[in-house]
């Protein structure tokens, strides 16, 4: 069922149906200014759907909208077949794709919370009291028993996910102490995030041309030019009208996005719905409090476009704002790495250092860091080293070699950065 007023894409709805493993046999569309409180669709449209179900012998009717429990019950009675709304359809896809223990817990939580308001549909035939010696009296109906069991299971899953969240928090704190930035891939479902993730990390994550191919998050440590190690995170794709319950249930996973140092917003550049997909992702980022995190746009699948070559778009200050590439063909990946380094390397130290012959320990430390681009000597026998490395690493190196930052003019140019870094060192290494 498709409502023109909401301007949904029927092709995306059919992709969702196929992703769930169903075979679509008919698409019934309609337009109403306001939903019918009883059926969501009008009574005439319900008759049309019932005739279509009977003629094609369909087993289930899927609505591309969120239905209330009463509407689902009324529609099932009128159509004499199973009815599933958009939320139930997405949950079914998630249940099929979950692989890790955490992912399965999150899917089960979302399913149980969605099911809790719909129990009455399945248990109306068991509305009777318990009997027997010691059990007479008001007792407990079957429906009340199932609701109680449901609440207990939801409470149990919340406890397990809280434990997972604490474990992830420990991992994030360890990365912060080690000053390793996290780069999180976000974007509309089927934008090519997992393909890009595999191209950058060689992780072998499952990637397919279907909606929600990725459900469980994957983290990989990468070595980036100039800035050193980063953590790259692949996350579940977003979609228009993502139910709030799903966002809440997947909070432990989405926290990797909300606490990232940089977001790579992957976009299917060849999609006709590109602009609308961008808006949908931005709305979800607002829901999870990630809208203010620095983001780099990644326009993927340029191999499906005409006369578009890999390139970097920059703003008026020369900062990268977008990278155009093809993850499938591996075109433009070096440009993406360059853009990531520039976005994360705001405090990059790139200078030519003059080291005295007695400062051989500093020279050896720079070579051990792998940051020496070129070396030469002046007439006095001093080493001239052209280096490029994160400022925090350079400050730590100076401290180990007992060299004052003023030696290279850093107090004047980077006073705040030096003070903040030294304060963090005092905290980490008392």
TrEMBL record:
Gene3D superfamilies reported for this sequence: 6.10.250.2860, GTPase HflX, N-terminal domain (3.40.50.11060), P-loop containing nucleotide triphosphate hydrolases (3.40.50.300)
Keyword Magnesium included in the entry's annotation: yes
SUPFAM superfamilies, per database record: EF-G C-terminal domain-like, P-loop containing nucleoside triphosphate hydrolases
Domain Hflx-type G positions: 181-348
Domain of life assignment: Bacteria
InterPro entries recorded: EFG_III/V (IPR035647), G_HFLX_dom (IPR030394), GTP-bd (IPR006073), GTP-bd_M (IPR032305), GTPase_HflX (IPR016496), GTPase_HflX_N (IPR025121), GTPase_HflX_N_sf (IPR042108), P-loop_NTPase (IPR027417)
Record keywords: Cytoplasm, GTP-binding, Magnesium, Metal-binding, Nucleotide-binding
Cell compartments where the protein resides: Cytoplasm
The family this protein is said to belong to: Belongs to the TRAFAC class OBG-HflX-like GTPase superfamily. HflX GTPase family.
Function of the protein: GTPase that associates with the 50S ribosomal subunit and may have a role during protein synthesis or ribosome biogenesis.
Subunit structure: Monomer. Associates with the 50S ribosomal subunit.
The protein's name in its UniProt record: GTPase HflX
UniProt organism field: Pokkaliibacter plantistimulans
Gene: hflX
């Amino acid at each position: 069922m498709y409502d023109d007023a909401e301007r949904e894409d029927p092709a995306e709805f059919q992709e969702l149906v196929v992703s769930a493993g169903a075979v679509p046999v008919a698409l019934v569309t309609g337009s109403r200014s306001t939903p019918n409180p009883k059926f969501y669709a009008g009574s005439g449209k319900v008759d049309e759907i019932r005739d279509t179900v009977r003629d094609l012998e369909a087993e289930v009717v899927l609505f591309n909208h969120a239905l209330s429990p009463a509407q689902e019950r009324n529609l099932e009675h009128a159509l004499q077949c199973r009815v599933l709304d958009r939320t139930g359809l997405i949950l079914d896809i998630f249940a099929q794709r979950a692989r890790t223990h955490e992912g399965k817990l999150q899917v089960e939580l979302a399913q149980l919370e969605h099911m809790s308001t719909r129990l009455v549909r399945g248990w109306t035939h068991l509305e009777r009291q318990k009997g027997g010696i010691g059990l007479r009296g008001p007792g407990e109906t079957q429906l009340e028993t199932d609701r109680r069991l449901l609440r207990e299971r939801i409470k149990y899953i919340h406890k397990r996910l809280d434990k997972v969240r604490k474990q992830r928090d420990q991992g994030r704190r360890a990365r912060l102490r080690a000053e390793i930035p996290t780069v999180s891939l976000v974007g509309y479902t089927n934008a090519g995030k997992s393909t890009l993730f595999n191209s950058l990390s060689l992780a072998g994550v499952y990637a397919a041309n279907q909606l929600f191919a990725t459900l469980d998050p994957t983290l990989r440590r990468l070595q980036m030019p100039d800035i050193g190690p980063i953590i790259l995170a692949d996350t579940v794709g977003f979609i228009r009208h993502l139910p709030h319950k799903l966002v809440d249930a997947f909070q432990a996973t989405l926290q990797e996005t909300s606490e990232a140092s940089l977001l790579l917003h992957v976009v299917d550049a060849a999609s006709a719905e590109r602009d609308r997909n961008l808006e949908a992702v931005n709305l979800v980022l607002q829901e999870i409090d990630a809208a203010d995190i620095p983001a780099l746009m990644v326009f993927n699948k340029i191999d499906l476009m005409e006369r578009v070559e890999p390139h970097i778009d920059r703003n008026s200050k020369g900062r990268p704002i977008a990278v155009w590439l093809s993850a499938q063909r591996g075109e433009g990946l070096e440009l993406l790495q360059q853009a990531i380094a520039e976005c994360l390397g705001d405090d990059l130290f790139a200078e030519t250092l003059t080291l005295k012959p007695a400062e051989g320990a500093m020279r050896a430390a720079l070579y051990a860091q792998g940051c020496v681009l070129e070396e030469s000597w002046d007439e006095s026998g001093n080493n001239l080293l052209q280096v490029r490395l994160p400022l925090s690493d350079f400050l730590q190196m100076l401290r180990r070699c007992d060299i004052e930052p003023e030696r290279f003019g850093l107090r004047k140019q980077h006073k705040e950065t030096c003070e903040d870094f030294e304060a963090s060192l005092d905290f980490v290494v008392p």
